[in-house]
Amino acid sequence: MTEAFSTFRTDRIASSGLRELGVLMRGFSRRIGADAYLLFEHRPQTGSVGLIACDWPFDMIAEIGSDGLDRLARAGIACAPGDAAGIVALDAASIPSDISAAARDSGYASLICQSLPVGDALFVAVYCAGDGTELCTEEAELAQMRAIYAISQRLTAKAEIASPLSVREKECLSWVAEGKTTEEVAMILGVSANTINAYIAKAIQKVAATNRAMAIATAIRAGMI
Amino acid sequence: MFDEGPSPQIAADRIEREVSRAFLDVVERGQELAAMMGAKRFAIVFAAYREGRLALQPFLDTSYPGLSALSHALTAPGVSAELQQAVTRAQPTIFSADRELPAHHGQATVPALVSEEASIVLPVHSPCGRRGLVALSGPEMTVEEDRSMRAHLRAFALFRAACQLRAPEPRARHGLSKRDIECLRLTADGLTSEQIAERLGLSVHTANQYVAAAAEKLDAVNRMHAVAKALRAGIIS
Asked: Is B231 helix (H, G, I), strand (E, B) or coil?
């Protein structure tokens, strides 16, 4: 085992929806011709995963670990909707060797890894198939869209987090993005350094960042500053 | 007498022609997508949250280099509740003409976007984190579950192509190396120097050096400044 499996409990989907999604994913998996599925929410900023539903063999999940799922979800392996079916053989160079070894131990020969963007959240489906299995590319492509619709219908209301920064928080963040230190921003805005730090801490929290650099990146990407 | 290569003006013209050809390619693909649904026109708009409010910005449509009525309807000031929902949900939203259209997978049917035309609005994402809508509209739309799902898949691909037009690969990388950019990108993702070092298999000192080098090349005073400059210049996304 590479590391302990740590997963967050997703708050994006109501608990009744989790089981329904499991049933649907199982259906998609059959239609594609795959043997097992795994669905999780991915938070690329922190590299964390939130397991939603899965019928993978336990050993394989334990071996790949949450870190392995994070790596599987990253671009280059997981395919975007409309890109391709996402079917990759385990010997493909894009798949990390520890992951392919774990899948092979469970008797699989290929994976189908699809990213499922829904609103401002990102989910990932990973199907596994045994050797010699006929996989239906067209069904795999459609399954990606079906899964996106199915998740979207079961999202909790809080899924779309509008994080409007206050005028002061935006001002502070904009100055920090210009390379100003806390003391300099305090001087510019005519308040104490403690106040500035409090504004920035609040802004970091509102944009769900872990530090200043990430808060600035998130705010610029979202067009807030 | 001397072969000095094309003059800067000619080179600039060529770049412009290439850019507009790339735009025309996307327009052609959009038109094919519209035809697939029996629609007459398409539009791609970008969604962004500004001041905590949703804003839709026109980008490209059937009337390129101009803008069609569809883009105008989608990006009219004060985004309608229906369009706000269309961005938030992942399923298509159907803006019906007067006649009835069947609704499936919980697709909402709401009043017409362009008069006398039915429109299907498909929410789309790009892997670089941009969001938007691809709308198809026409008097003779055929909205049928299986076909709209296929159209939606193609809309995702179309939006990705549109994103590439919007943010072309930065030609001037300000002399940043691949490693510099990688360290900067990880810094923007909230990683500390220790975490970057671990992720890339470097020493903390080396990771720090890359970030410092990136900041210096970008003429930034610290790493926060460097992240902001790199994002705005499109060096990282």
From this structure: helix
